């Protein structure tokens, strides 16, 4: 918050005290309203605010952190405001390596956020290649190379800054807010920074600051004596989001009308008030279509929107299947006819209705190699009053395959170009309410539920059955009209289906090929499985118990019958999981074993406590950790995120504890080489840092490298995998007393260094690492070769000194050294520093060893 005081001498101490109290009230109000608005868009979003108070000399008077904390005693959320004292603490908490002065905070930080410059923060995810060490004294290694720097950037957050001009107790000022939003999906982040004009989230934030509260003609927000602030339209968070939705569609219509090229809109960051957005009626037209049925069926299908100039040009990207006559185009407000025409579209065949901002031109496909940078939106209708809007772009990429040919005496590696079609979901609408981010259902959540304590010990499902049932659900989701998948134990399935016999189609219990599921679910009713993966019935109409607090009146019959059936089984003390797939593609999983919102809040609270380094927070931190570490029904990514925070603070043991917990929760079906790579490097870095049990942690790293990484598909391995594996083998050899065991480890290290060199571009560190190993193996000539190679790739005093030490210790190596350099005559300039050093050495020994000194003359 920036406060520019007027007549500071006339403002008494009492007024200023009241002013700062009013600031805290405003902070709390802004936080509460924004938090509610964001939760309506995606309940996973987590909000944090910072307000900065500067005096009229641009000097910091107060820096407040505003966040919500969950009380562990009564589960009630409280909004806390803590003073951070200095800007550097604020930037440190945000993980930013910046040094903006107080007077720069307004202009520079906004630009910083807009350009996404904060991604190059202190916790950079760039992987630094590890150097081997001749001994375990870390002081001999440059600090930048101490660690593998496998800390992952927090790539699930957005930073944003905006302000209010305010008037409070005759004091005028500007309140600057830095906003951090966490748990944001990557697609939303990408739009927010790379195509901000199409980011719905950015429009929500911008309009909150420019069009939510009542302002006077000077655009100043008036704070009353009781610290109240009036809303401009007296709307709640639902109404505000719906209003922004109308404006957003109005903006899309304006873009379609005025712009044709994506590059024209890519660098527009801020939103300004534009009354034309209210006048444009694209939202009403689309909404009207989405509320129409055709022969009783809900609307499904898609419309592509392009600029009218593009559609009317001689060279346009549309390949029409049918094209309406130019004087008989169909108006976009003819909802009844367009709903009928949607039946002709087919997403799987890329066949769509073609439109500009006001007319339907026909039915056709996109000729992708002619789309270029044209703006293309697609609206997918997903059922009654439900639709999504997407931005479609293309990107040219090099083919991974090619061939080597000789042309004009030169070797040329020829590759073809691929055109990647990129589909970005801009916003989802469900009964007029906007949604951003992914849906609540994930495969991981389904797997966690099947493996949770909800099923008792005798009903535990083996991993293969879990994987099969996950495939069943995935294929059931392709059922256009929706369905349900019921999973119980064998005895419950048999007894229940005897009761439901008259309203089911019973079959011999058997495993169904997953690809057939979408056909078997095309009739009404659920498909019924047991925990052995056997299907017992299709078309099952579920009966249950109706209770006052069971179900949701806003949802359909399928959803409510599933909840009633689950309640019936609960009263019989029987276990059941039901996957509900709605017509619009929404997936619900019941029972819900954890309160997701509470879990996300606890994790964010834990992360904040770790970052803040508050010594007094120890008991609270331990209590939260106890709750989370004893819960297996949590998204494993959350454990990984905490591990990364601890890793960033060099708390290796805690980082390892959380990452191993995440791996255990995830199970084999969701773990990849990258996950084991991260854990191996945690052990690796811990071993390099710790002064005790080094061999123990290196051995842990080796086992993970061997079991999960080196034995993986070779295409997934990179130079860092091979390099770090080699370093581990090399270090472990130092702890071996047996010559045979030592040689075995040396050979494994040599193999991995060589593979690292093979799969990478010429890299000096890799050759230097292998040189150190070869020296240990008494392969001195080979060691010298690698050091010279390293020096020619990237000249370094360290490499030159290593070469000089080798030849000084063994004069017979001088001729060999010179021979290698001469063979690299094409790269002589790269070896200039080495040659100069060799020349100086030759001159220094000329009197005592004229024959050896003469050898160096070959280099000139």
UniProtKB/TrEMBL annotation:
Record carries keyword Mitochondrion: no
Signal peptide per UniProt: none
The DAC domain, residue ranges: 443-601
InterPro entries: DACNH (IPR048555), DNA_integrity_DisA_N_sf (IPR036888), DNA_integrity_scan_DisA_N (IPR003390), TPR-like_helical_dom_sf (IPR011990), TPR_rpt (IPR019734)
Record-linked Pfam families: DAC, DACNH
TPR repeat ranges per the UniProt record: 636-669
PROSITE patterns (alphabetical): DAC, TPR
UniProt keyword annotations, A-Z: TPR repeat
Domain of life, source organism: Bacteria
Protein's name in the database: DAC domain-containing protein
Native organism: Peribacillus butanolivorans
């Amino acid at each position: 918050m920036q406060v520019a005081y007027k007549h500071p001498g006339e403002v008494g101490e009492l007024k200023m005290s009241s002013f700062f109290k009013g600031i805290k009230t405003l902070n709390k109000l802004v936080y509460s309203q924004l938090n509610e608005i964001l939760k309506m868009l995606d309940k996973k979003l987590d909000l944090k605010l910072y307000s900065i108070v500067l005096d009229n000399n641009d000097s910091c008077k107060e820096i407040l952190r505003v966040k919500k904390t969950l009380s562990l005693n009564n589960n009630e959320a409280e909004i806390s405001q803590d003073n951070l004292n200095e800007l550097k603490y604020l930037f440190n908490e945000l993980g930013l390596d910046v040094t903006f002065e107080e007077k720069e905070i307004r202009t520079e930080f906004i630009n910083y956020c807009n350009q996404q410059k904060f991604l190059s923060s202190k916790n950079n995810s760039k992987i630094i290649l590890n150097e081997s060490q001749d001994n375990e004294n870390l002081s001999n290694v440059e600090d930048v190379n101490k660690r593998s720097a496998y800390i992952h950037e927090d790539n699930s957050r957005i930073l944003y800054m905006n302000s209010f001009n305010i008037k409070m107790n005759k004091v005028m000022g500007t309140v600057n807010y830095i906003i951090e939003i966490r748990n944001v999906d990557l697609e939303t982040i990408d739009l927010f920074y790379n195509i901000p004009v199409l980011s719905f989230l950015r429009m929500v934030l911008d309009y909150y600051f420019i069009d939510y509260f009542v302002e006077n003609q000077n655009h100043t927000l008036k704070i009353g004596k009781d610290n109240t602030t009036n809303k401009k339209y007296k709307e709640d968070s639902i109404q505000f989001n719906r209003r922004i939705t109308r404006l957003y569609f109005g903006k899309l219509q304006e873009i379609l009308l005025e712009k044709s090229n994506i590059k024209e809109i890519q660098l527009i960051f801020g939103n300004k008030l534009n009354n034309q957005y209210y006048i444009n009626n694209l939202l009403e037209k689309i909404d009207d279509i989405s509320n129409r049925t055709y022969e009783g069926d809900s609307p499904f299908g898609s419309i592509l929107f392009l600029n009218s100039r593009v559609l009317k040009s001689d060279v346009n990207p549309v390949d029409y299947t049918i094209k309406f006559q130019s004087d008989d185009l169909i108006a976009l407000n003819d909802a009844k006819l367009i709903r009928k025409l949607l039946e002709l579209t087919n997403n799987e065949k890329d066949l769509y209705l073609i439109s500009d901002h006001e007319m339907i031109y026909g039915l056709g496909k996109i000729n992708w190699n002619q789309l270029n940078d044209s703006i293309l939106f697609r609206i997918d209708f997903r059922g009654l009053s439900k639709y999504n809007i997407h931005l479609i772009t293309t990107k040219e990429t090099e083919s991974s395959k090619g061939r080597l040919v000789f042309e004009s005496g030169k070797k040329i590696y020829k590759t073809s170009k691929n055109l990647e079609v990129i589909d970005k979901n801009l916003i989802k609408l469900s009964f007029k309410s906007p949604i951003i981010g992914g849906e609540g259902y994930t495969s991981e959540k389904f797997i966690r539920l099947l493996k949770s304590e909800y099923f008792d010990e005798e009903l535990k499902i083996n991993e293969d059955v879990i994987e099969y049932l996950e495939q069943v659900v995935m294929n059931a989701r392709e059922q256009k009209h929706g369905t349900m998948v019921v999973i119980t134990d064998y005895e419950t399935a048999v007894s229940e289906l005897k009761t439901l016999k008259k309203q089911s189609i019973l079959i011999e219990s058997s495993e169904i090929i997953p690809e057939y599921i979408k056909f078997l679910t095309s009739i009404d009713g659920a498909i019924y499985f047991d925990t052995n993966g056997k299907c017992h019935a299709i078309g099952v109409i579920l009966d249950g118990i109706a209770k006052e607090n069971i179900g949701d009146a806003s949802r359909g019959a399928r959803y409510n019958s599933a909840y009633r059936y689950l309640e019936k089984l609960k009263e019989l003390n029987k276990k059941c999981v039901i996957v509900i797939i709605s017509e619009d593609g929404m997936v619900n999983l019941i029972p819900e074993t954890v309160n997701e919102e509470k879990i996300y809040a606890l994790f964010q609270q834990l992360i904040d406590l770790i970052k803040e380094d508050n010594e007094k927070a120890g008991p609270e931190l331990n209590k939260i950790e106890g709750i989370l570490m004893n819960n297996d029904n949590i998204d494993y990514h959350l454990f990984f995120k905490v591990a990364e925070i601890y890793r960033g603070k060099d708390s290796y043991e805690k980082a390892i504890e959380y990452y191993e917990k995440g791996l255990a929760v995830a199970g084999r079906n969701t773990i990849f080489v990258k996950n084991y790579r991260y854990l191996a490097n945690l052990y690796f870095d811990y071993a390099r840092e710790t002064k005790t049990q080094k061999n123990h942690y290196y051995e842990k790293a080796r086992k993970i490298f061997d079991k999960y990484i080196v034995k993986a598909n070779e295409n997934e391995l990179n130079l860092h995998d091979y390099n770090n594996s080699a370093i581990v083998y090399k270090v472990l050899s130092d702890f071996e007393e047996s010559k045979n065991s030592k040689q075995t480890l040396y050979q494994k290290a040599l193999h991995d260094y060589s593979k690292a060199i093979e799969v990478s571009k010429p890299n000096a560190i890799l050759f230097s690492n292998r040189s150190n190993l070869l020296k240990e193996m008494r392969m001195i000539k080979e060691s010298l070769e690698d050091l010279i190679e390293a020096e020619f790739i990237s000249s370094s005093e360290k490499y030159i000194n290593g070469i000089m030490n080798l030849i000084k210790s063994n004069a017979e190596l001088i001729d060999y050294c010179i021979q290698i350099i001469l063979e690299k005559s094409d790269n002589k300039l790269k070896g200039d520093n080495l040659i100069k050093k060799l020349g100086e050495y030759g001159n220094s020994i000329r009197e005592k060893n004229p024959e050896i000194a003469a050898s160096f003359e070959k280099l000139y």
